[in-house]
Amino acid sequence: MLFKTPDWVKHAIFYQIFPDRFARSVPPDQNWLLNVPLEDWNAPPTVQGYKGGNLWGVIDKLDYLQDLGINAIYINPIFSSASNHRYHTLDYYQVDPLLGGDEAFTSLLKEVHHRNIKLVLDGTFNHASRGFYFFNDILENGPHSPWVDWFKILGWPLAPYDGSRPANYASWCEHRALPEFNTNNPGAREYIMRVGEHWIKLGADGWRLDSADYIKTPGFWQEFRDRIKAINPEAYIVGEIPLEANEWLDGTQFDGVSSLPFLLATTSFIVGDRLVKGHFKEYPSPPTIDAAGYAEQINQLLQLYDWEIQLSQLNGLNNHDTARLIDVAGGDRASLYLSTLLLFTFPGAPCIYYGDEIGLTGGYDPDCRKAFPSPEAWDRDTLEYHRKLIKLRHTHPALRIGKYQTLYAQAQVYIFARILEAEILIIAVNAGDETAKVSIQPSLSSQPQQVLFTYNSGNANWSDEATQTSLNFTLAPRSGLILG
To answer: Among 10, 40, 94, 439, whose Cα sits 20 to 30 Å from the Cα of 431?
Structure first.
């Protein structure tokens, strides 16, 4: 199988935007968007309340994102929906009016592309909502509805709201607000394919596919890929697959996945026993591991997929479904900083969840979906830390597409290299609480000498003995550096 993924993804730094919470702005002719009941921007978020963030607000923040070094945006669902997260889709062909509607989307596309920033949409195609036209027709007309086979009806009558009765239709995780499509039905399948095509034709640069593993229909994602790539061969197709994804990364379906193995391994190693809560309320916390355990998990992950696929993964430290890493670590800033260092030196596209770069905190949903704060509340040190790492990744191709080689993994010290032809960068992390002195004899074609980046403090030097050349590190507690 010849794998081919979009070249731009390999050089992308993504920024994930939860549109209701990122920024709020309206043109003078759309003031009505502010004349509806909205939660106070700075109040704690609630499950059902709206803050009123919109696409006009995203446009206003593009200079900030461009200055940060962002060149790709993944935005949570933007289509009409009766939920602030908009995973309960009402109309796949209309941008939610509260987000500014189709006019705001058209303007956003124009502005991001003017800045050479890509925009990837969130597609929720496993399920719709109770208010989705075709399902609503079934609620009104029962077995007489023309669309009855578009969903997985199990019996009559349907009970979309009464939790004391059987719903009588299949829904995502038995959440009756989210009826599942019957993707075996040719009409429903064709509808979803055309939705996917529609927004790519308008200029979107790809799809992040929500709950992609829930769609089991043979050939579905192969057809989706073929039809999207026929419109734009460089469109990015990334599936949400929680763990191993070989089944979907065979070159005929997704270019990459947004998965948990990197997040969980990095949390286990860097946060370690500082962990006060897991990323997920409903799942057990990952066990603590040392550097050797981290090396084993990371190298297993890197062996799972073809290298072309590895370079197109969408990697992050947290997202809209998880507690933020800073909260997982009980506020320990070093955990955020060292994890971010590993993220930006790892193969695949790094993705910043909005606000991580300015120290935004957040526990379990809905707390992980706080409104983006005003500048006076930003952690400027964290912002500058992200700026430096982003600049380094843009400057050094080896950090983006270079081979990955573990050089040392003992106790709490992990050292690895990214290698691209003559360019070699060495990254060293001490996750422990004591100063570490390490000497290694790497087999490399050159000897990187310059410390390009450091957190806390550390140094490195080469020494020549009679029989070998050694690279010697002194790493402060909870520190990291990049040698190049």
So the answer is: 10
Count of H-run helices and E-run strands, the chain: 15, 18
CATH number at residue 416: 2.60.40.1180
Q: Is residue 324 part of a domain?
A: yes
Pair (257, 337) in one structural domain: yes
- Active site annotation includes 210: yes
Q: Are 444 and 419 in contact (CB under 8 A)?
A: yes
Q: Is 149 a catalytic residue?
A: no
User: CB neighbours (10 Å) of residue 386?
Assistant: 21
Q: What is the pTM of this model?
A: 0.97
Q: Which of 39, 96, 180, 240 is catalytic?
A: 240
**Catalytic one among 20, 96, 180, 210?**
210
Tell whether omega for the bond before 397 is within 30 degrees of 0, i.e. cis.
Answer: no
Q: How many residues does the chain have?
A: 484
Q: Which structural domain, as residue segments, surrounds residue 165? A: 7-399
